[in-house]
Amino acid sequence: MTLFLEEAGLEYQIKPINIGKGDQFDPGFLKIGPNNRMPVIVDNAPADGGAPVSVFESGAILLYLAEKTGKFLPKDLRGRVAVTEWLFWQMGGLGPMAGQNHHFSQYAPEKIPYAIDRYVKETNRLYGVLNKRLEGREFIVGDYSIADMAAYPWIVPYERQGQTLDDFPNLKRWFQAIEARPATVTAYEKGKAINPPAPMTEDAKKILFGQTAR
Questions:
Q1: Any bridge partners for residue 53, and if so which?
Q2: pTM for the full model?
Q3: pLDDT digit string, tens, across residues 17-28
Q4: How far apart are CA 122 and CA 155, in angstroms?
Q5: Rounded to 5 degrees, what angle do the CA atoms 53, 8, 154 make?
Q6: Which family does the entry's similarity section mention (predicted)?
Q7: How many other C-beta atoms lie within 10 A of the C-beta of residue 29?
Q8: Of 13, 24, 27, 165, which one's alpha carbon is 20 to 30 angstroms from that of 39?
Q9: pLDDT of res. 166
Q10: Average pLDDT over all residues of the chain
Q11: Confidence grade of residue 192 (pLDDT, cut at 50, 70, 90)
């Protein structure tokens, strides 16, 4: 999301939510983020001129911002379909599978070889899908789009995911091209300034991984 805001030159303010302390369960946050997850945005100047609009789920946010600004989403039918396909591919595949990869290899209290192997292999398969798609293409769907912005952050921790970019030359070229974009550099610098990397405490793990419907 921050990648889009920087690329589009939009004014925005980041409001940190400390998920390790349970800020995502605050009633005020739940009004705009009912899934108690990030990211969530509030647009105080929606296109219809009405009351502020809140949007949760990263894919929905990227579509909203693309439609609002007319940027990073093709206007032609086929281009729009392709970007939407690959955006949903990230939402339904790369993100969830890499997330489970992170959980079982990095955070689970018990190292379960089958689970780790399962998700490392599935992450590898998805890297291969993206690598094949990028053959002969600079970006996922021709020009840089919200599909690229959605997928890129999930490739950043490739080493933690048990992957080697040299195994995927097209993906590696794509990754390095996005990494070098000024908007990407700025977005990640702002993210680190607000949320510096830190070890996850056991209390934070209980909050993040121990929730039920209650």
A1: 43
A2: 0.92
A3: 887 788 888 888
A4: 14
A5: 85
A6: Belongs to the GST superfamily.
A7: 17
A8: 165
A9: 98
A10: 93
A11: confident
